[in-house]
Amino acid sequence: MATALLVIGAVTALPGWARESHRAAPKKAVHTQRTAAKAPRASSQKRTHTAPAVPVAAASTAAPSAGTDQAETRLIRVYRLTAQGRADEALTQAQSLARDFPNFQLAQLALGDLLAARTRPLTQFGDVAAPPPEAATALAELRQESRQRVAAERLRPAAGAIPTAFIEISDRTRHAIAVDASRSRLYLFENGKQGLRLVADYYASVGKLGTEKEFEGDQRTPLGVYYITSRLDAKQLADLYGSGALPLNYPNALDLRRGKTGSGIWLHGTPSAQFSRAPQATDGCVAIANPDLERILNTVEPRSTPVVIASQLHWVTPQGVVGERQEFNQVLDAWSKAKSDGDLQRLLGFYTYDFQGMRSQSITEWRTTLQEDLQALRGRTVVLKDKSALHWQDSSETMVVTFAEVPAGARSGPVKRQYWRRQGQRWQIFFEGVIG
Q1: Residue 393: beta bridge partners?
Q2: What is the C-alpha to C-alpha distance for residues 406 and 17, in angstroms, rounded to an integer?
Q3: What are phi and psi of 427, to 5 degrees?
Q4: How far is Cα 258 from Cα 116, in angstroms, rounded to an integer?
Q5: CA dihedral sign of residues 141, 142, 146, 149
Q6: CB 5 within 8 A of CB 208
Q7: In 10 A of CB 55, how many CB atoms?
Q8: 3-state secondary structure at position 125
Q9: Count of CB atoms within 10 A of residue 395's CB?
Q10: What is the mean predicted confidence (pLDDT) over 97-112?
Q11: DSSP 165-192
């Protein structure tokens, strides 16, 4: 049926092979934000090192989302069959998908178009004549969701590539997450003996007004390096949050330094009536479909799992971050050497003049803390174990470092997190605190 080629408006964004043929209040947890309007701004996480970037793959060379019968995978299959003119097969697949996921509005819309195409030519995806304003908005959001899902299939990162933020991940950290707001995509990595491996990626929704959160209630999703702090069961939450939630440590030390406000930024699910939400639909959180969230809830560990949220992720081979890792480790080793040597003046040189500790200590007050640390060490060597380093660059360059500080002869030590800032060619610490 020739008119079937017009059914899916997003099909022109498919790969060549296709073209050729926040919210209500929770029940228990307090999680509210005020509303404010602000024009979206462009931002991306860029790199300064010279490692070549990895191009996106022309086809699906990286690991797809777990399970061959994922709703999105099946939806893309419907799009592909439609583009190839195999309307009957597409209709059968769409009927099955809509039956299995009755709350998947995008699947229902595709099915409706395929049925309508049997009786009349269609001009666009979601071909509805003069819909009322509310329906027109919903249709526009569904079309944008469709474009984002199709683009993610076409622009999948190359096999083995990792985001440039992941400079070093501790062996004890089993998983890492990265979110690309420009692609409405969340990437889940597993950390094994061979390093990070992309094991799944999911469609994700961010703030109504985009990203670059600055203050409470601005309906924007923050950009930066964060960590999952806890796990919230669905029984604790309103239906809006779906299968549960993973709170993030927003605002982090860099956010606080910049005067950013707000709280309650979560990775959470979707209401029971919705399989997914529009690309920009939350009050600042990152929302994914409940089946996808459930896999993450059952996989990642709070406190140790990093979550990088960028307006646009940049990808390199694992070898592409080796040079920067080695360069920064030299700086970190020099810091630990100064501490091991008990050299207070040399140690203070690693801290910024406007340093602030976890309890808001100034650099003068921190000097006393360092003196006490050196006295407690009694000349023992400091060993940094289970180290992770995550890089963030926007208007400035930051390294978020987490490690266990273990004195020689001891079996364990405090877990610390430091925020380093590059100033010219020099790295210095502007925040340090014990987190475990």
Answers
A1: 397
A2: 55
A3: -95, 135
A4: 53
A5: positive
A6: no
A7: 11
A8: coil
A9: 6
A10: 96
A11: TEEE--TT--EEEEEEGGGTEEEEEEEE
Q: Which two tokens stand for residue 21?
A: 């043929």
Cβ–Cβ under 8 Å, residues 15 and 58:
yes
CATH fold group of domain 162-316: L,D-transpeptidase catalytic domain-like (2.40.440)
Q: For residue 135, what pLDDT is reported?
A: 84
Amino acid letter for position 130 = A
- What type of residue is 196? L
For the chain, how long is the longest CA-to-CA vector?
A: 85
* CATH class entry, domain 318-434: alpha beta
pTM: 0.86
- Pair of tokens at residue 180: 């690309």
| Token pair for 368 | 């006393």
Q: How do residues 223-233 score in pLDDT, each as one tens digit? A: 999 999 999 99
Report d(CA 352, CA 423) in Å as an integer. Answer: 10
d(CA 312, CA 393): 12
Which whole-number Å values give the CA distances from 80 to 70, 193, 219, in the listed order?
A: 15, 37, 35
- The amino acid sitting at 324 is E
Q: What is the reported pLDDT for 124? A: 76
Is the Cβ–Cβ distance between 242 and 268 less than 8 Å?
A: yes
Instruction: Round to whole Å and give the CA distance between 303 and 256.
Output: 19
CA-angle at 214, arms to 242 and 34, nearest 5°:
55
Domain ranges in the chain? 162-316, 318-434
Residues 6+ apart with CB under 8 A from 116: 122, 127
**Using a CB cutoff of 8 Å and minimum separation of 24, what contacts does 185-194 make?**
185/148, 185/152, 186/267, 186/286, 186/288, 186/292, 187/157, 187/163, 187/313, 188/295, 188/296, 188/299, 188/300, 189/162
Q: Is 39 exposed, middle or buried (CB count within 10 Å of its CB: 0-12, 13-18, 19+)?
A: exposed
Q: How far apart are CA 407 and CA 340, in angstroms?
A: 9
pLDDT for 28: 38
Whether residue 287 contacts residue 240, with contact meaning beta carbons closer than 8 Å, is answered with no
